[in-house]
Amino acid sequence: PGMGLNAYFSYELCAVAGVPWQVGLGVVFISGLVFTLLTLVRAREMIVNAIPRSLKHAIAAGIGFFIAFIGLQHAGIIVNSDVTLVQLGDLGSPNTLVALAGVALIVAMMAMKLRGAILLGVLGTGVIAVASGLIEAPAGVFGLPVIENPAMFKLDIAAVFRNLHLYLAPILILLFFDMFDTIGTLIGVSEQAGLLDKDGKLPRVNHALLSDSVGTMVGAVAGTSTVTAYIESAAGVSAGGRTGLANMVTGVLFVAAIFFYPVVKVLGCCDPVTAPALIMVGVLMVRSVARIAWDDITDAIPAFLTIILMPLTFSIAHGLAIGFISWPLVKICGGKAREVHWLVYVLGAAFAMRYICL
């Protein structure tokens, strides 16, 4: 489930608007159905292919800064400030010291070009965290969690259709944000993996988009909010993952991890242990910034806005939206209106209307 979308689902839709969670899951399912229909008619593929090359590189770099920003927060290196929004944290705190040790460990192994440096770094940081007393050692190696899912098969689709006029806006909001979160993630991770062709297009992109939209429907049936592609996939790409085989092996390992629940719970739920991996993945993704046409100001300004607003708004979708809005406007001002794909004009107008109306 997407972290921004599940916040909208739980707080805005269910808590504030008072929509029963069963009906909320029905809203998620219908938004997934619309995703799937748009994918089958190749509307989403057209959007991906219409995104300008510099903007695609900016998306990858922006996601890199975003991931690194999250990692720095989890490490306690960057903390909240009522005066300046953010400030340097307490570098002497146990959490931060463990995270910094993890960063140093991963950097050293990457400099030595060791395969799996990020994963080994997470394991090494976990050992340091246990040895320093920051977290308790696992009670054992093998074990199973208590698995309960009272939300499975409880979605109420009929209630949504009976009051479609009430739920049309939430459906469109989920559709809008999931679509562009996924597109931004897909482009960013694919660009890092070198999967874009010479024209900046992603071959067979519809297959990836279809799996995402079907995943949203399956997730709603299983009882969770909108399912989406995760930017943390970049960690696998940085370790050499390039094909679906890597993802399938990862899925099998997730199933196997259930039987090692005591260890996974201790390491996976400790922010200082996982933060170094996020920071280093951010480093790897930011290098896409070098491929942006900075010498062309009509490319540079929208690209810069896309990059900087992803971490500052804490949203891939917002950064992508500002990129789409600013790209045609700057191109028109630069006398390059004909260089802009007609779909970028449409999307820019749609994004602008979204901010004006909502």
Q: Would you give an account of this structure?
A:
It is globular, with a radius of gyration of 21 Å. It has 358 residues and is mainly α. The protein has helices at 3-16, 21-40, 43-50, 53-75, 94-111, 117-131, 157-162, 164-193, 205-222, 233-238, 244-257, 261-268, 271-286, 297-313, 316-333, 342-357, and strands spanning 78-81, 85-88. Helix 8 crosses helix 15. Helix content is 69%, strand content 2%. Strands 1-2 form a two-stranded antiparallel sheet. It has 16 helices and two strands.
Indicate the structural class.
mainly alpha
Instruction: Return residue spans where pLDDT drops below 50 for at least 5 consecutive residues.
Output: none
Overall radius of gyration: 21 Å
- Mean pLDDT, nearest integer? 87
First-to-last CA distance: 24 Å
Shape: globular
What is the spatial order of strands in the main beta sheet?
1-2
List the helices and strands and how they pair.
Blueprint lengths: L2 H14 L4 H20 L2 H8 L2 H23 L2 E4 L3 E4 L5 H18 L5 H15 L25 H6 L1 H30 L11 H18 L10 H6 L5 H14 L3 H8 L2 H16 L10 H17 L2 H18 L8 H16 L1
Antiparallel strand pairs: 1-2
Helix pairs in contact: 2-8, 2-9, 4-8, 4-13, 4-14, 4-15, 5-6, 5-13, 6-13, 8-15, 14-15, 15-16
Condensed summary:
The protein is mostly helical and 358 residues long. Helix content is 69%, strand content 2%.
What labels would you give this structure?
358 residues; 16 helices; 2 strands; globular
